[in-house]
What we know:
By secondary structure, the protein is of the alpha+beta class. 15% of the residues lie in helices and 34% in strands. A hairpin with a 2-residue loop joins strand 6 (121-126) and strand 7 (129-134).
Amino acid sequence: MKKTALCFGTIAVFLILPFRMNAQQEDVPEPVFLNFSIQPPYVPTYHGRDPFKPLNWVTSRPQISIAELKYFGIMDAGSGPMALFGWRTDSSQEYTLKNRKLYNDAGLPVDGVVGDITASQVILTQGDQKITYPRN
């Protein structure tokens, strides 16, 4: 009985113990994470239309005619006088004339419209069309 237990013990030491030694985890640095750099994803540059926006997408508001503007008055800001206008068909949209340019409520200049504020009147010009308002 002692011989068989000793025999099984010896077999266990020589057969099972080496497998347990190889099963231990070793900390080995992985080459993938050694030179890992954090960079933003690749953003391609392209010329022309943005392919991810639909064809009927409009970037700007529709152009207005100065005949559609309603004159409210003059406001004197620190940088000089400003004339205030509103759009007749949509009163929520406001326009400001300052430094000879007409700006919409988002602060973007309206293309093709030039204006002037004199001592007696406010003048808006768009192409051949010219409208004067009395300065109140």
